UniProtKB/TrEMBL annotation:
Alphabetized UniProt keyword annotations: Cell membrane, Membrane, Transmembrane, Transmembrane helix, Transport
Primary site of residence: membrane
Keyword Cell membrane applies: yes
Membrane protein topology class: Multi-pass membrane protein
Annotated localization: Cell inner membrane
Protein name according to UniProt: MATE family efflux transporter
Cellular component GO terms held in the UniProt record: plasma membrane
Pfam families membership: MatE
Length: 437
């Protein structure tokens, strides 16, 4: 069993909200950013060592990668919301029961999804050189999917229990291992895309082993406990999880529009990696407000729940403005981290500048959604997290492609950001009072 959770005084309930938010968000941002660096390192080494076609191959299986992340958040984020409210109410036993169910659910989802992704990739990927590299990456990372999901469940539990600093150290070690193995397998041994995938899975396995050593083992939940808790875990994790499924859908629509041509596909791969990395600190802000608001909602501290929202929105807007300014002012150096071919660089810069316009509104919308989720307002959180990837962006991409042409599809991103910011304002301000947890 895991060790006891310390506690006579709960800092989430007793310390100033701003300080608690910062001490939760900063380590979490470091953890998520370090975990996201796996993908950035993979793409940068592949692009600079193997070439733009390797980046295009990884972009081709980006929808599958987003499905894997979606499954991770389904078990992890949903359990974290339940654990946070249980700990806020002083129910440590319930918190442990939720985690035990979450890790069993994560393992089951990982095994089933791995098989489905491998079967789907074998049937759908083309048999040209880029398609064969994409297949190598897909089947190897799919085999490691159960490890990825278990690691995510352990990490979400640890940050909800206030151990985000330890998780940051684990992710630093895993990122260092990933980069070292990438260089060895890709550049040293010449394994190409397959070597990058092996390095990623090995780093995920290391992170899981270290997390278990830090947090301690937890006895897997029995079938009855999993069946009892899984619907609640899934209901709370589903809004955020489906947002990643939506990203997979958006990516699939983009791939269908731009086709399999190497240059635009490689450029899109670069843009995806940069935007995914920028999104992770925004996710940390959302997870932090989920943790702080959830603990205080469980304790009936509604004034602190509202204060957490205000702080999170300011932090999210600040991060969004920083990202937007950096990309608009210096896109070329960012793109050249991944590829050197002039035509790919030019196309990636064009795509990046268009997609990041109004991106500063994306993090506040996510923070608002996570704040709603922390209080059990899953339906409203779902509206904010799902409208963009399932409705607004796909329709915008198709509309711009049909009316203006495929080169204009990137304008769908700023249009979606503006629309969703207005929707978020309406949803959050619709109820003057908080819903009890």
């Amino acid at each position: 069993m895991s060790g006891p959770i310390p506690s006579t005084e709960d800092p989430f309930l007793d310390r100033p909200v701003g300080r608690v938010f910062l001490t939760t968000a900063v380590p979490m941002a470091a953890v998520l950013t370090l975990s996201g660096l796996h993908g950035v390192i993979d793409a940068a080494i592949l692009g600079r060592v193997v070439g733009a076609e390797a980046v295009a191959a990884v972009a081709m299986v980006f929808p599958a990668a987003m499905v894997a992340v979606a499954l991770s958040t389904l078990a992890g984020a949903g359990a974290a919301s339940l654990m946070g409210r249980a700990l806020g109410g002083g129910d440590v036993r319930q918190s442990r029961a939720v985690f035990a169910a979450a890790q069993t659910l994560a393992l089951a989802l990982g095994v089933v999804a791995a098989g489905l992704l491998i079967l789907g990739g074998a049937a759908l990927l083309p048999h040209d050189p880029i398609g064969r590299m994409a297949w190598d990456y897909l089947w190897i990372t799919s085999v490691g999917l159960p490890v990825q999901l278990l690691g995510a469940a352990w990490g979400d539990a640890a940050r909800t229990e206030g151990r985000a600093g330890a998780v940051a150290g684990i992710m630093l070690a895993a990122t260092a291992a990933n980069g070292t193995l990438d260089l060895w397998f890709v550049a040293g041994l010449g394994w190409g895309v397959a070597g990058s995938a092996v390095a990623t899975v090995a780093a995920q396995a290391l992170a899981l082993v270290l997390a278990i050593r830090v947090r301690g083992c937890a006895r897997p939940a029995g079938a009855r406990a999993v069946l009892a808790l899984a619907p609640r875990i899934v209901a709370l994790g589903l809004p955020v999880s489906l947002s990643f499924v939506g990203m997979a859908l958006v990516s699939a629509v983009v791939l269908a529009v731009i086709g399999g041509t190497a240059e635009p596909l490689a450029a899109y791969g670069v843009v995806n990696r940069l935007l995914a990395l920028a999104f992770l600190p925004a996710m940390a802000i959302g997870l932090a407000v989920q943790t702080v608001a959830g603990r205080n909602a469980g304790a009936g501290r509604q004034d602190r729940v509202r204060a957490a929202l205000h702080i999170a929105l300011l932090a999210a807007l600040g991060w969004g403005l920083m990202v937007e300014a950096a990309v608009q002012l210096a896109p070329v150096p960012l793109v050249r981290l991944f590829v050197a071919e002039p035509a790919v660089v030019a196309e990636a810069v064009r795509q990046l500048r268009l997609t990041v316009a109004a991106w500063s509104l994306v993090p506040p919308v996510l923070a608002a959604a996570m704040w709603l989720q922390a209080q059990g307002r899953a339906a409203e959180a779902a509206v904010l997290t799902l409208a963009r990837p399932f409705l607004v962006l796909p329709m915008g991409i198709v509309a711009f492609a049909s009316v203006v042409g495929p080169e204009a599809i990137w304008l769908a991103w700023p249009a979606a950001s503006l629309l969703l910011a207005g929707l978020a304002f309406l949803v959050v301000s619709r109820r003057p009072a908080l819903v009890p947890a």
